[in-house]
């Protein structure tokens, strides 16, 4: 390991963030659980007992089998099977992968748009600031779910379910990402308004640096703390939005289910006794969102020394 890497590691260990993390059991547990979700999603093809996308390995005679610990359960299906005969453990691993991919990608799109627009508005100011912030106000006046439902319903009706299924993930990422960028833009703008009057920015101007370089190389790194906090909350919101849209039939197709699609597909069986088809994916979804929200709350408190208590 290089001296530079060692010094960075040492600086991180001496930071307030690491100090607070090692003394907060909730943060450590939530981080561990989140890593389990991430690793389980990444290595789903290696961990999952079956491939839920391989129709040749699915037997309809295995449909609606209860979890293995129940009387009629089978050992080869630990969490039971769904109405199509797919192994629930495998579909949950792949479904979590889909949900996290959509959530993380949508937030990345939100952050990209919000940071560029917020930096431009705060640094340039004047009419550019007014125009961009009015655009953000207009965007915020529409509910994310309302916009998503309208756009997805129109696309599905116009191009058909088959074509929609092929591009469902990309469409969901685009719609959820576009709908939530003002959260980032307004936060970044407020930080930039405070930062651009500081001496290091004035010094950069005197040295002849261009506006783009000052914005992204000097001001942006000093505005990242609120971005990290917003991102944790927005990842949870994006996952919930995708799950809600899937539950309404406007999300991922049943052939490539997300957690929301799994909950939706099993909802009609919950009163017939096959509760595990909906309940188990629902518990996984709630746990994932709760873990992300708790991490977001902890990060917000740590980065605001006025309210953090050791």
UniProtKB/TrEMBL annotation:
Keywords: Cell membrane, Membrane, Transmembrane, Transmembrane helix, Transport. One of its GO terms (biological process) is transmembrane transport. One of its GO terms (cellular component) is plasma membrane. It is a multi-pass membrane protein. Pfam families: BPD_transp_1 (PF00528), OppC_N (PF12911). SUPFAM superfamilies: MetI-like (SSF161098). InterPro entries: BP-dependent_transpt_permease, MetI-like, MetI-like_sf, OppC_N. It is found in: Cell membrane. It comes from the Bacteria. Residues 96-296 form the ABC transmembrane type-1 domain. Its main location: membrane. The chain crosses the membrane at residues 26-48, 98-126, 138-157, 163-181, 227-254, 274-296. CDD domains: TM_PBP2. Belongs to the binding-protein-dependent transport system permease family. This is Peptide/nickel transport system permease protein.
